[in-house]
Fold this protein.
Amino acid sequence: MSDRLAESAGIYFRRVFEAMRTEDVEKVERSIFNMLAAKIPFFAISKESDYQKILAVAAMCTQGKYVTSMESESGNGRVDIKMVSRNPRYPHMVMELKSSKSKDPKVWRDAAEKALGQIKAKKYHHGLEGSILLYGICFGGKEAKVVMEKVNPTND
């Protein structure tokens, strides 16, 4: 039974990161909601660190395509989640997460924009080469607002 649960959770997890890798922000939001709604009890997600742990574990389901770190020193601070691609065909991904008690998606969007600004201001993507996707994500319950920016080291 637990193998089936892990296998089905892996499908949800892979959908989130496939949408991220292909820069489909709306699909990222839908996939996050579907994953949380199907697999995560509401009481287990009350703080930003809860979402961070869930996404970091989900990132480990990328079938060896990425080396994932959480709260690692990067640039001028500590990045929430950093996924370094093992293959130049895949972009690196850097994520800063926020959570909100508000029910207003505009508040979530503003917090996601702030998270993206934090990534850039603190240069969490420093040292990465090639295509890099920066993700600011704000969670409100089981929903998320996601903003993304693609950068290359030459246009930092």
